[in-house]
Write a structure and sequence with these properties.
This protein is of the alpha+beta class. It has ten helices and five strands; from the N terminus they run αααααααββαβαββα.
């Protein structure tokens, strides 16, 4: 009777080794967004997750294609964002902008924050961010340097705006202001004051001094940089 080899009788050297089974770890279940906020605060969320809380439907890849959070918030109506975002989502981004601006202005008034140049700088940077044209604003102050109002007085082109000192003086008198801070943005992104900016600042200070109103500072807002005339010794 012929002998039939079995697994037990086949020499070990001739056996075909079985492939080793890889142990795959189960993917961790994503922690709910609200639970993460309660545990570590909103700073623990990714940019696209924060937008999702506002109802803006962009995943991480789409947000990156739009240029990131900064580009999106700087200009939600840009053509690329218009393609990516429905009108309702763009409206939510605009609403976020407006809420942030109102919060900054309310804090400016509550804290008398012109005693804090850093907060004034942040407020004006937020106020002027995202404009494609040059905008000139003034913050009118009382005798204790507490903000009375902040107004956009002039708008211009991408490389300049016509600022009339007499209009600034008239608005200062209308608010019964004792002092003011002015600022304008450079859409080019370069915050370095131009020769025209220096001449304008001198004319403004002289015109305001005639009615006993002091020009405290002039900020030039660029892309991620804000230059103070007072800090530069130009005022």
């Amino acid at each position: 009777m012929p002998h039939t080899a079995t697994a037990a009788t086949v020499p070990a050297a001739t056996r075909t080794p079985r492939p080793a089974r890889r142990r795959t770890r189960p993917k961790p279940v994503p922690e709910p967004v609200l639970a993460r906020i309660e545990r570590a605060g909103p700073a623990a969320l990714e940019d696209h997750e924060l937008l999702a809380l506002l109802g803006v439907r962009l995943d991480a890849a789409a947000l990156a294609a739009a240029g990131g959070l900064r580009e999106l918030l700087d200009d939600p109506d840009d053509l690329l964002r218009t393609v990516l975002l429905p009108a309702a989502d763009r409206a939510r981004v605009h609403a976020f902008h407006e809420l942030h601006a109102r919060w900054m202005q309310a804090r400016l008034r509550r804290d008398g924050a012109l005693t804090s140049p850093s907060h004034t700088r942040r407020y004006l940077e937020a106020r002027l961010r995202g404009y494609r044209n040059e905008v000139f604003v003034a913050v009118f102050l009382d005798s204790r340097h507490r903000p009375i109002a902040c107004e956009e007085l002039f708008q211009g082109t991408v490389d300049g705006a016509s600022v009339h000192p007499r209009v600034v003086v008239r608005r200062a008198l209308g608010h019964n202001a004792s002092a003011l801070v002015v600022a304008h943005g450079h859409p080019s992104g370069v915050a370095e004051p131009s020769a025209t900016d220096r001449v304008l600042t001198k004319r403004l200070a002289e015109a305001l001094a005639l009615v006993d109103v002091r020009l405290i500072d002039h900020f030039v807002v660029g892309d991620g940089e804000v230059v103070s005339f007072a800090e530069r010794g130009l005022l």
